[in-house]
Design brief:
The chain has 2 helices and 37 strands. The protein is mainly β. It has a single domain, classed as YVTN repeat-like/Quinoprotein amine dehydrogenase (Methylamine Dehydrogenase, Chain H). It has a 5-stranded mixed sheet with strand order 1-35-34-33-32, with helices on one face. The relative contact order is 0.13.
Length: 511
């Protein structure tokens, strides 16, 4: 185990000098960030280890670092001089996300407030090109390590007096990215009401110097907090708002279900694909995931929402006798449509539901993991039957506090092998590694300071965990369940993995 010191950078010159000294002292060869794959040592073989990059947020200085995992150095840093500025809006927070092809990273700046309190400078989405591209060479694709760039445009929706709408749920799958922008309601002034909006882009269109045009954009007709998924470039699933007959937004800001739309849809009611209206199938929807031909949503309504059980509840619908479950949609390529099944939660005398989901890839394709109290509910899409608990299994995770800091499936595709493991970082700084196919579980105690472990990101074969207090990013080898390397970065609060995924041809590393 060893540490590369790249923290405490105050100027670009200091950063460059620090790297030169560190590399010289360790005997490594510095490489140009514009270098092609010929400068990387993977001669004549499919890569067994992931050589990509991390995008890491330095929250202390509000800087964005792009860290190369092979050269073990920061290859780009963005701050206010590059146009990467923090918002001063009330309730500010941010999330890091990446495109499903691994090329682009995104910083979602989000406020906790809506119009008219929004700062028009808030709720922007910065876009970073990782510099990881491919070139066609002799009938196959080769990877290219290029210079990362903060792109000159920013994503967002709305604007003007209302401010930009807040980007909430993010979904990137099948080469497409869908963003749901929350609505807002003002009971005292209907003129200030804002409907939620679902927007989708092709990942390839982010490679631009100007704001790309969305391939799908739909006003969802309500002010609810929702979700959207792009399955292919003419099929989109969008959550639909709370029905007024059930109490409307007085009862819940969460939708009651979803519906499917084509790319040319403009009306949330009239343009639902025939037979694809699932608006009553998932009350209080929160949490979504895609895994192969399956899409799942967490549904969060139960008897505790009846007014007789909860005096503060504004629920006005029929008496609820059972908890809702998880809505699973199965895609049928022949008909280009979905079948729906409501999978019941365990009969365990609890009121637990699922507010977050993750979908597996590779060996775990077709599998979802849904949060369920301290534990997780495993759902096998091919086995689910409507109204039953078929295809479900409770997965035990001891969090000590009922909280998970982060969870994700190991990304696996034809370019990178792996077991499709499911990994959980708990609030007690334990890292659980589940091999669902083998039915095994490993647990690793992370050496984070108290409340230090704050973010988890996965690459094929590896997990990366930030420790913002100790200024560390730990690289965990998933097969060995041990820390393989440590990187010293200043105040890393969040990170995402950037790389080469979802390409039709293999990427071959060679000289």
């Amino acid at each position: 185990m060893y540490i590369r010191s790249i923290a405490g950078i105050t100027t670009r010159l200091a950063m460059i000098l620090l790297f030169i000294l560190a590399l010289a002292g360790c005997g490594d060869d510095a490489s140009d960030t514009d270098a092609h794959m010929e400068e990387h040592d993977h001669e004549g073989e499919h890569a067994e280890e992931f050589p990509g990059r991390l995008m890491v947020l330095d929250a202390e200085n509000y800087r964005l670092n792009v860290f190369d995992l092979e050269s073990e150095r920061v290859v780009a840093m963005f701050d206010e001089h590059d146009g990467f500025e923090a918002s001063e809006a009330s309730g500010f927070g941010e999330l890091l996300r990446s495109s499903s092809d691994g090329r682009f990273g995104f910083v979602l700046q989000r406020t906790g407030h809506f119009s008219p309190d929004n700062n028009p400078e808030a709720n922007r989405i910065h876009v970073v090109d990782s510099g990881l591209t491919v070139e066609d060479h002799a009938g196959h694709l080769d990877p290219v390590w290029g210079t990362p760039a903060l792109l000159p445009y920013q994503l967002g929706h709305g604007g003007g007096e209302m401010g930009l709408y807040r980007p909430i749920h993010w979904s990137s799958h099948h080469g497409l990215t869908a963003i749901f922008y929350d609505g807002s309601r003002h009971p005292d002034d209907d003129n200030q009401n804002v409907n939620g909006v679902a927007v989708a882009y092709r990942n390839s269109d982010f490679d631009s110097q100007t704001l790309p045009e969305p391939i799908f954009e739909l006003d969802v007709g309500s002010h609810a907090h929702g979700a959207a998924i792009a399955l292919h470039d003419d099929l989109f699933i969008v959550s639909v708002g709370m029905n007024e007959a059930y109490g409307g937004l007085e009862y819940s800001t969460l939708p009651r279900g979803v519906a499917a739309y084509r790319a040319d849809a403009v009306d949330v009611e009239a343009d639902i694909i025939p037979g694809q209206d699932f608006r009553s199938r998932c009350p209080r929807l929160h949490g979504e995931a895609v895994s192969g031909d399956y899409v799942a949503f967490g549904c969060n309504e139960g008897p505790e929402d009846n007014p007789e059980n909860n005096p503060d509840s504004n629920y006005m619908g029929p008496t609820i006798t059972e908890r809702s479950g998880v809505l699973v949609l199965t895609y049928d390529e022949a008909t280009d449509s979905f079948d729906a099944a409501e999978v019941a939660y365990p009969d365990d005398d609890t009121e637990l539901t699922s507010g977050g989901l993750a979908g597996g890839t590779g060996p775990s394709e077709g599998i979802f993991m849904a949060t369920y109290g301290e534990h997780f509910l495993q759902i096998n899409g091919s086995e689910v039957m409507d109204g039953t608990r078929d295809g479900t299994e409770l997965v035990m995770v001891e969090t000590g506090s009922g909280r998970h800091r982060s969870y994700a499936f190991e990304p696996v595709d034809h370019n990178y092998g792996g077991e499709g493991r499911f990994v959980v970082l708990t609030a007690t700084d334990n890292l659980y590694i589940f091999d669902l196919e083998a039915g095994t579980r490993e647990m690793l105690e992370m050496p984070c300071s108290e409340d230090g472990c704050s973010s988890l990101a996965l690459a094929p074969g590896f997990a990366y965990v930030t420790d913002r207090i100790n200024n560390r990013v730990y690289e965990v080898h998933l097969e060995e369940a041990e820390i393989e390397r440590e990187f010293l970065l200043n105040a890393p609060t969040q990170l995402v993995v950037l790389g080469w995924f979802e390409y039709e041809d293999e990427i071959v590393f060679h000289e």
